[in-house]
Design brief:
alpha/beta, 8-stranded parallel beta barrel, 10 helices, 12 strands, 35% helix
């Protein structure tokens, strides 16, 4: 049985870690380098670092911060935000990122998935997808959830897998920051249709939510932010709880 992963997410805006609800009302959550170091030493299996306004503001991810975070941690590290070319992906990987996460740019130019995958291997490519349920159907949204597309969530993730994505990071915009649990139904469907790992994001509020997403949606990893940043859930305790409930964890 494959070990499941717990992944804190550091959403970065103007050099600070922030967290909101449904992608708005952002609050300061601390220094990203200090948080990254803390998580690396306290049970996190991986980290995700997203410069959440990089695409919207047409600027690259903060390479210097990536370099500084990479110096402080000993766990795999995914970086996203404003990655619109192979050259930017290469710069991030050379400065310490183990993987890059692409979102809006992949929708606009799907060949970018294959370019990065062929250069660094599919394991280095995480396709991040922000989606919202509208009229009973899950639609992909871009630019931090600001722009609705005509892309169906499941069609897009299958296409991305075919193009060379090594992992899917799916955030339900409807669940983001609500602490009401993950989008189990959508994640279950995605898990059935894809052969690559899926990271669930959006909705974690209590330890039972993590058990629910692993036991019932069978995802490979669960990502959360505010419950970890504000010490509402302690990662090592969460992993012991999951292990005691039959979920394979690295302790």
């Amino acid at each position: 049985m494959l070990t499941k992963r717990i992944i804190p997410c550091l959403d970065i805006k103007d050099g600070r870690t922030v967290k909101g609800v449904n992608f708005v009302d952002l609050k300061d959550a601390g220094d990203p380098i200090e948080l990254a170091q803390f998580y690396s030493e306290n049970g996190a299996d991986e980290l995700v670092f997203l410069d959440i306004t990089a695409t919207h503001q047409k600027r690259k991810t903060l390479v210097e911060m990536v370099k500084n975070i990479a110096k402080e941690i000993s766990i795999p590290f995914t970086v996203g935000g404003g990655i619109s070319s192979l050259e930017i992906a290469e710069e991030l990987i050379l400065n310490g990122a183990d993987k890059v996460s692409i979102n809006s740019a992949a929708v606009k130019d799907p060949s970018l998935i294959g370019q990065i995958s062929e250069t660094f291997g599919s394991q280095a490519v995480v396709l991040a997808v922000d989606a919202k349920k509208v009229d009973g159907k899950w639609w992909v949204h871009l630019n931090g959830g600001r722009i609705k597309t005509d892309l169906d969530l499941f069609d897009w993730t299958k296409k991305a897998q075919d193009l060379g994505a090594g992992e899917i990071l799916f955030t339900s915009m409807d669940h983001d920051g609500t602490k009401d649990g993950f989008a189990i139904e959508a994640l279950s469907k995605m898990q059935e249709e894809l052969s690559i790992p899926i990271i669930a994001s959006g909705g974690a509020g209590k330890t039972e939510d993590f058990l629910d997403v692993f036991a019932n949606a069978h995802v490979d990893a669960a990502l959360a932010a505010s419950v970890f940043h504000f010490k509402e859930i302690e990662i090592n305790a969460l992993k012991m709880y999951l292990k005691n409930h039959g979920i394979c964890m690295r302790i």
